[in-house]
Write a structure and sequence with these properties.
This protein is α/β, with parallel strands linked by helices. The protein has two domains: about 100 residues, no CATH class; about 130 residues, NAD(P)-binding Rossmann-like Domain (Rossmann fold, 3-Layer(aba) Sandwich), CATH 3.40.50. It is built from ten helices and six strands. Strand 2, helix 6 and strand 3 form a beta-alpha-beta unit. Helix 2 packs antiparallel against helix 4 and helix 8 packs parallel to helix 9. It is elongated. The mean pLDDT is about 80.
Amino acid sequence: MLCTLAIIVVGKSLIAYWIVRAFRHPPSTALTISVSLTQIGEFSFILTGLGVTLQILPPTGRDLVLAGALLSIIANPLLFMPGSTAARRGQAALEETPATPEPPPGPALVPGNHAVIIGFGRVGTELATVLRERGVNVLVIDNDKDHIERAHAAGFPGIRGNAAADLVLAEAHPESASIAIPAIPQPLEAGEVIAKLRTINPALPVLARAHSDAEVRHLLAHGADGTVMAERELAYSLAEMVMATPPYRYAGRGGAAVPPV
């Protein structure tokens, strides 16, 4: 009987705790849920009765489950009170943890005729670098602290925050920008940003990235002037390289492709 009670109170609670933690919830939440599950209720009576009726569970097993259920119901309030207190203390400790400091200020933006790049991941980084090499004044917006610190280290003015937030977008001065490029892979967020850019500056050219025809339609419907589908552009580039190789070099000029020897 003690083993049955240990499985209910300890085993089930530990499993619940680690499942909650696996979904990245704080330890205080996991502890509260695990302590609240240190019992089994009336449904176990129905299952054990059905098991005995179907002769898949001996009467001794039914008696053990019923005893474990009764004892766990009695023990649950005694365990829940200290468990909930520990969870509240853990939550208070998390709330007292100092917030992640903002990255130090980067290069100052000189508003006017600048390009607003939203997202400083792999695509945004390459795009910002190429534009700067061609003399374009670039501003970066990204919600990731590490990305903004990297942008500042590379010499780009950067704003940390969600570009769909009005205050963040206003700080980028889209009313005086020359172009905006949402380089983020999330089409729903990009569509929301584009719609807000259109409200602030209807004449602002806006380009965006996409990964499917549905995303292209979504972004164009929200006001994008053009989109680039990465997979399609990669296929075109590879096709051009293929056609430039000796076996196919003259195929695009009206001549027949020369088969390889």
